[in-house]
Amino acid sequence: MSYRNKFSLIIISAVLVCYTVVGGLLGRGVGQEGAYSQLAIFNEVLAKIKGSYVENPDLSKVMHGALLGLLESLDPYCTYLTAEEYARYQISRTSGDGEIGLELSKEKMLGYIYVIHPIEEGSSERAGVQSGDVIEAIEGVNTQDVSLVQAGYLLSGEIGSEVKLKILRRGRSDPLEISVVREKIKISPVRNRLIKKQIGYLRVSRFVKGVGKELRSNLKAVISQGADRLILDLRNCGGNEFDEGIEVANLFLDHGVIAYSEGQQSEKKEFTADPDKVISKLPLVVLQNYGSASAAEIVSVAIKENQRGEIVGVRSFGKAVIQRIIPLDGQSAVLLSVAKFYSQSGQVIQNKGIIPDYEVPGGLDVRMVFPRDPGAEEVKPPREDKDIQLQKAIELLTKPLEQERKTA
Predict the structure, then answer these.
(1) Is the pLDDT assigned to residue 50 strictly greater than 70?
(2) Distance (Å, whole) CA 251 – CA 238
(3) Closest CA to 219 of 207, 201, 233
(4) Sheet harboring 229-233: ordered strands across?
(5) CB 322 within 8 A of CB 348
(6) Which of 115, 219, 326, 354 is least surrounded by CB atoms within 10 angstroms?
(7) Pairing of strands 162-168, 176-181
(8) Is the separation of the CB atoms in 248 and 211 below 8 Å?
(9) What pLDDT, on the 0 to 100 scale, is given for residue 363?
(10) Which is nearest to 103 in space by CA: 289, 263, 260, 232?
(11) CB–CB of 251/281 below 8 Å?
């Protein structure tokens, strides 16, 4: 087959792939005329690359980049996986590889991967990686050139081995070089204690399987110790176990809609509080920050919109999508967001986040600001006695108690 015929075949295949991805997988109601118009532009661009680019292009690489760009333009979590990447993706979900414990997203304007938050007790947190850090390179690979899934491959590996990160951080003009040891992350997802003898403090570090059951046990423990008011700390807390988020919210709600999910091809699914599952109706304050994401946001918005408690902190991250892996011909695949979560009032969480009732910057919060700003000061997490978000929560719960005692 001649090179011209091969090129024509590639163009036709590319057009069909794009049509399938855009039209078939996303289920978009694109009119036939509009679809052909867009595909004609795509065809023309490919032809110009072939005819006018400075050197003979690697069309398979061009197509791979085009498909990545197409999917990542939807949201940072959608991506195209080659046959090799798809095979590794399937293995990675059950493998015993070491990891470094980071919740990641991708900055849309410049395309760098950045840290929503380091997982509590993980090796990244111990190495000094912070919420809001922009990862410029992983083992010398520029993160503008990789998807979030590919970044996960670079970060994982043999337990005990090291991965080198080049990090851009607010307040520093020069990149930081940080080495992090890969390990099997062992998480203590829930902790509890009493504050001022009557306030039960419950800290959820990550939504993993079993968190709802563990929080139920911790909640009963602080109540049995005499707690008559509660703080639920969801700062720097993520995890895509949305069912656990629903279960945790239900521990505090005896009625009302917790959230609902919906997508173009996914029917609306409403999650309603079961009165038989509620554990506590005590006064409640929820702490959140920019590192609060995914299942944690389901809890915050349910507490807020059902007027069950008050939210203190800053706007949460805004990540609440259900994803599906869809195999394609040739053993490749696409990872697509197929549904979003909404609050009971219909407010979308994705890209919006949850606005607190009391805006309190500081505390454990570090907002993501592109770090090459020499005039900005580096923000470090404070000691607990200087945690102004926690202090605000205590104030909200203590003042009503003092007023009750005065009128008794």
Answers:
(1) yes
(2) 18
(3) 201
(4) 190-195, 199-204, 229-233, 284-288, 310-313, 358-359
(5) no
(6) 326
(7) antiparallel
(8) yes
(9) 65
(10) 289
(11) no
CATH number of 93-181: 2.30.42.10
pLDDT band per the 50, 70, 90 thresholds, residue 35? low
In the chain, ranges of CATH 3.90.226.10 domains: 190-323+336-364+381-401
pTM of the full predicted structure? 0.82
Q: What is the pLDDT of residue 108?
A: 76
Q: Are strands 310-313 and 358-359 parallel, antiparallel or unpaired?
A: parallel
Average pLDDT over residues 282-304: 97
d(CA 65, CA 71): 10
- Please give the C-alpha separations between residue 390 and each of 245, 287, 308, 354, in angstroms, as whole numbers: 22, 7, 18, 18
Whether CATH 3.40.640.10 fits 190-323+336-364+381-401: no
For 235, counting Cβ atoms within 10 Å of its Cβ (0-12 exposed, 13-18 middle, 19+ buried), the class is: buried
CATH 2.30.42.10 spans which residues of the chain? 93-181
| Structural contact between residues 297 and 353, judged by C-beta atoms closer than 8 angstroms | yes
Under the banding of pLDDT at 50, 70 and 90, the label for residue 380 is very low
Other CB atoms closer than 10 Å to residue 27's CB: what's the count? 13
Supply angle C-alpha 377, 382, 388, rounded to 5.
100
Rounded-to-integer distance, Cα 105 and Cα 77, Å: 8
Contacts of 284 (CB under 8 A, 6+ apart): 229, 230, 231, 232, 252, 303, 308, 309, 310
pLDDT in tens, 124-180: 999 999 999 999 999 999 999 899 999 999 999 999 999 999 999 988 989 999 999
Residues whose CB is less than 8 angstroms from the CB of residue 148 and which lie 6 or more positions away in sequence, other chains included: 76, 77, 79, 104, 105, 106, 113
Is residue 19 predicted with pLDDT exceeding 60?
A: no
Distance CA 44, CA 51 (A): 10
Q: CA-CA distance, 405 to 400, in Å (whole number)? A: 9
b/e sequence 82-109, b meaning 16+ C-beta within 10 Å: beebbebbeeeeeeebbbbbbbbbbbee
Beta bridge partners of residue 115, listed in sequence order: 104
pLDDT at 399 over 60: yes
Share of the chain above pLDDT 90, in %: 64
- Alpha-carbon gap, residue 326 to 332, rounded angstroms: 9
